[in-house]
Amino acid sequence: LEFLHKEIVLRKTTQLKKYLADSSVTSMLGVHNALSAKIAEEAGCQCLWASGFAMAASLGVRDNNEASWTQIVEICEFMADATEIPLLLDGDSGYGDFNNVRRLIKKIEARGIAGVCIEDKCFPKTNSFINSEQQALADVTEFCGKIRAAKDTQKDSDFVVVARTEAFITGQGLSEALDRANAYVESGADAILVHSKEKTPVEIDAFMQQWKEKTPVVIVPTTYASTPFSHFKDINISLVIWANQLVRAATKAMQEAAGKMLIQDEIVSLEKNIASMGSIFQLQNTGELKQAEARYHPKKIKKVKELV
Ligand code: SPV
Ligand code: MG
Description:
Elements: H1 2-8, H2 12-21, E1 26-31, H3 34-42, E2 47-50, H4 52-58, H5 69-82, E3 87-90, H6 98-110, E4 115-119, H7 140-153, E5 160-165, H8 174-186, E6 191-194, H9 202-210, E7 217-219, H10 229-234, E8 239-242, H11 245-261, H12 264-271, H13 277-283, H14 286-296, H15 298-307
Parallel strand pairs: 1-2, 1-8, 2-3, 3-4, 4-5, 5-6, 6-7, 7-8
Helix pairs in contact: 3-5, 6-7, 7-8, 14-15
Residues 30, 51-54, 90, 127-128, 220, 222, 243-244 line the site of sulfopyruvate.
């Protein structure tokens, strides 16, 4: 029966592809390590965004490809191992040229990552919210080569390659965004991520009005987060990425706690506002190890009991 159950559960790649294809809009939460990934999953999140910004921040470096791609893949491996839901890697500009992209795809597929998003910026990239008008877009032909290289390399036919255009971010406007999106779809992209830093979804609305392709569209409404969620469904968005709110929530909580912990009287009041040790043991699936010990190493349990 266990075998049968395993057969029925969809592969993570297939799950992600379904979220892109179905008519409803799915929220993805941006995560930066396995703990945040697990927390997002337990909150009911259906798929995860391995945020380049958030992973960089958690490593204490900038979102400028200061962490190497193998360091990023290592974090993603922990996230994928800790969760049952698909993980989409923010693969920046692909960490180099088409050949680096091929190697990336080979390695992330082997580690259970369901898809990658590659953006049309140059290496090393800069976060979209920093001096964005001065950022150069990648050459279209060269970027299309990266998308084709990714699609030709994947072994699992459902592995997802999202092409992200920064045309709006760099101030290039609608026709550039559309031309690029069309070229990326022709090169095999499974979805287009169109990014905007406007306070309202004006650019996204304009893009969606013209976007006649059936290819799913992904957005990151960090600056236009106050838009009613139903609007995204109305304009046929497939995935909405809440990219950085979890790392920001964690940062503020830790800043507040750290400040209080240095004042002795505050430690007691802090206790009721922080996660219990038990809840962290649960996130680590500590109970499973106890069960495994009973099954595979019962003598160990006996020994521990004798000691106490
Ligand atoms: C990320 O989460 O790293 C992103 C989204 O790429 S953004 O920071 O908005 O560019
Ligand atoms: Mg990023």
